[in-house]
């Protein structure tokens, strides 16, 4: 089982937005990279991020991230302190249209259930995928994503979750179990599972018969 640190900020409601819609948003903001960076900084307000941080968390090449950062600094959305590799970027709290931009980005940051499941299924034979935490508005929850399956590959799963994080612009707290372990924990009323199933949650895959 693996969990990640809790995210900062609000939550996302998972919708049925298609990849085409996300592509259109990318064009609206000039590039998909710029849109990813807007999400990253808006959903992690107060954080100072280096070029390496930004490229890693957004799954972008350094050159692509560098160009997008420079464009957002010129636009006044971000501030920059320092030079070269030591430069740190932050969201500019004095940006005139910050509130309106934040509302728009939050309202349009959604992933389709099909996209989520498709991203995760490479990690093994999925038996259960459940959403909780910021996906359903339960901020106090310990995790946002619960996965159970057979022959799960932890490294592939971690990469898949990182890809989802790059699209959302924030960390996803998650836990993963082999099916047998999940059934055992379910039978003994495991606290982590109760934290998911006793509160609002959403099942994207259920092949265990919950």
Description:
It is a single chain. The protein has helices at 19-28, 32-42, 51-58, 62-74, 98-108, 113-120, 154-168, 179-187, 191-197, and strands at 78-81, 88-91, 125-131, 145-150, 174-178, 202-206. With 210 residues, it is α+β, with helices and mostly antiparallel strands. It folds into two domains: 19-108, Arc Repressor Mutant, subunit A (Orthogonal Bundle), CATH 1.10.10; 113-206, no CATH class. The chain has a four-stranded mixed β-sheet with strand order 5-4-3-6. A two-stranded antiparallel sheet has the order 1-2. β4, α7 (154-168) and β5 (174-178) form a beta-alpha-beta unit.
Lay out the secondary structure.
Elements: H1 19-28, H2 32-42, H3 51-58, H4 62-74, E1 78-81, E2 88-91, H5 98-108, H6 113-120, E3 125-131, E4 145-150, H7 154-168, E5 174-178, H8 179-187, H9 191-197, E6 202-206
Parallel strand pairs: 4-5
Antiparallel strand pairs: 1-2, 3-4, 3-6
Helix pairs in contact: 1-2, 2-4, 3-4
């Amino acid at each position: 089982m693996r969990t990640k640190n809790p995210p900062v900020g609000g939550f996302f409601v998972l919708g049925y937005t298609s990849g085409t819609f996300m592509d259109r948003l990318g064009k609206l903001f000039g590039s998909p990279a710029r849109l990813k960076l807007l999400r990253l900084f808006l959903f992690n307000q107060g954080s100072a991020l280096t070029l390496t941080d930004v490229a890693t968390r957004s799954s972008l090449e350094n050159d692509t991230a560098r160009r997008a950062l420079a464009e957002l600094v010129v636009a006044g959305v971000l501030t920059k302190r320092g030079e070269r590799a030591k430069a740190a970027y932050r969201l500019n709290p004095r940006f005139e249209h910050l509130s309106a931009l934040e509302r728009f980005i939050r309202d349009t940051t959604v992933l389709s259930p099909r996209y989520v499941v498709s991203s995760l299924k490479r990690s093994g034979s999925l038996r259960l995928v459940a959403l909780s935490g910021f996906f359903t508005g339960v901020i106090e929850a310990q995790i946002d994503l619960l996965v159970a399956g057979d022959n799960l590959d932890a490294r592939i799963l971690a990469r898949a979750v990182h890809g989802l994080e790059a699209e959302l612009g924030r960390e996803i707290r998650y836990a993963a179990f082999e099916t047998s372990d999940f059934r055992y924990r379910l039978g003994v009323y495991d606290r982590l599972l109760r934290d998911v199933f006793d509160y609002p949650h959403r099942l994207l895959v259920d092949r265990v018969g919950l």
